[in-house]
Amino acid sequence: MDSSDRAVISTADDAVLAKLSCVEKGYYQDAFVHAMAKGVKGVDTGGRNGSSPMEPIIRKGTHARVCAVDKAISAFLSLRLEGDSSSNIKGRRQVVIFGAGRDTTYLRYRFGYLKGFEEKQVDWFEVDHTFIIEQKAHIWLPHCAPEGVNYNSEMNAATGVSYRASFSRQGGSDANDSNYHLIGHDLRSPPSSLFEKLSDPFHCYDRSIPTIFVMECVIMYLPDEASWNLLRYVANNGEETDQSKEVNSFAVIAMYDPIPSNDRFGQVMLQNLQKRGITGQKHQYGEQLLSLERTLTLSDHLLKLTKSGFDIAVGCNMMDAYDHGIISIDDRRRAARCEMLDELEEFAILMKHYCLCVGVHSRGDRYKSAAISFTSVGKDSLIGFQEGRCKVSRG
Questions:
Q1: Which residue from 385, 353, 357 is spatially nearest to 57, judged by alpha carbons?
Q2: What gap in Å lies between CA 314 and CA 378, rounded to an integer?
Q3: Is 150 in a helix, a strand, or coil?
Q4: CB neighbour burial string for 326-348, b if at least 16 within 10 angstroms, e if fewer
């Protein structure tokens, strides 16, 4: 592991520290984030009060990020697909989190903090560097089990560092007890090897099942060429190209990523990453520009998605997400009650340099209406994209 790898891996600590600070201030509920932050520098694991110092502007931005990604996942899980006889049918779905780090989204869905999970059979896959996956399986997750719930994990040596994990209630079980998978993989390496691991019988990933791929500040850290390769595979749900027009499949992506633009704020953003040893470093994959350095605007992100094979991509900057439909009024009111924010202009600048993008690629007729629904814009948008406040790209 070289210095640039360690610098990128450390961003998982930054993210969980910001989320912990939000939870402690009351922005949203997460019963697992404190346990997941175990061992992070600057966290007082002996108590909650004041254990994760963070600026209000960072808390507010982090809260918006959590709400936006939750909204995209919930929208996917709530989709009515052809063949569903009712809104509560236990239709199977797959969620794949790339660069999962110390993320607790699975736990919040699994134990009822977020809606949609309990209504369907959801197979949940988390992918990250083997160093992260080993710690998550053996150190962080065992501390996250609620009272009366047992945590178990089983390693699959055939696919390297990968695990099937479960949280089962003592004296009982449900359909989602064993549908949680942790996959160790370097996302810079060929995507074909990743999907081989996922598709191993031990994990039972199924390319024909509707799947959402979630990437929060992940694409930005990949060499640009590697990011294109990964997105092409994701668009085709694990295939390099669109193999068959006869097979029904449905792949969705939800991305949260920076948009440096060409202004002073964006330049400082890139300079800070260089100081941390993330950009401008030589490693085994060569000295390529990162996706972040090539994908500077919202339009760049959307065009990249459609050129990678997605039929349609929709996105907006996070300030528009906050003010116009994606972040709910209730969530904004809760944030306002937590603390006052004096740096309103700075907050607006920060939010305009991040975006939420979603894309859809469907094959066959079965999922056409679902694809239209998921990427809709206007008053009927499941995610909250509004006319004049988002951009759309079509493949």
A1: 353
A2: 12
A3: strand
A4: bbeeebbeebeebeeeeeeeebe
The per-residue pLDDT for 178 is 62
Return d(Cα 197, Cα 183) in angstroms, integer.
Answer: 8
Q: What is the CA radius of gyration of the chain?
A: 20
Distance between CA atoms of 259 and 238, rounded to whole angstroms? 27
Helices (H) and strands (E) in the chain, counts: 15, 10
Q: Which residue has the tokens 């009272």?
A: 147
CA nearest 74: which of 98, 93, 47? Answer: 93
Query: Tokens representing 166?
Result: 């479960």
Distances (CA, A) of 229 to 81, 100, 139, 222, 307: 29, 19, 32, 10, 11
- What lies within 8 Å, CB to CB, of 89 at 6+ separation is 120
Q: Which residue has the tokens 């390297």?
A: 160
Per run of 10 residues, the mean pLDDT along the chain (length 395 residues) is: 75 92 95 92 55 83 97 93 52 93 94 70 94 95 93 87 89 64 95 94 91 97 95 87 67 97 90 81 63 96 98 98 96 95 94 98 89 95 97 96
**Contact between residue 14 and residue 103 where contact means Cβ atoms under 8 Å apart:** no
CA distance 228 to 62: 27
Cite the beta strand spans of 329-384 per DSSP E: 354-363
Instruction: Tell me what percent of the chain is helix, strand and coil, each rounded to the nearest 5.
Output: 40, 20, 40
How far is residue 187's CA from residue 191's CA, in Å, rounded to a whole number?
A: 7
Q: Is 147 helix (H, G, I), strand (E, B) or coil?
A: coil
Query: What pLDDT shows up at residue 288?
Result: 77
Enter the tokens of residue 231: 């997105």
pLDDT at 118: 59
Q: Are strands 162-169 and 149-155 parallel, antiparallel or unpaired?
A: antiparallel
> Which residue is associated with the tokens 């959590």?
66
How far CA 133 is from CA of 94, 178, 259, 323, in Å, comes to 19, 17, 28, 36
- DSSP-assigned letter for residue 223: B
Confidence (pLDDT) at 86: 45
Q: What is the pLDDT of residue 6?
A: 80
Q: Which two tokens stand for residue 25?
A: 């201030």
pTM greater than 0.70 (yes/no): yes
Burial 86-95 (b: 16+ CB within 10 A, else e): eeeeebebbb
Assign 316 to helix, strand or coil.
strand
Contacts of 374 (CB under 8 A, 6+ apart): 75, 76, 79, 252, 358, 360, 382, 383
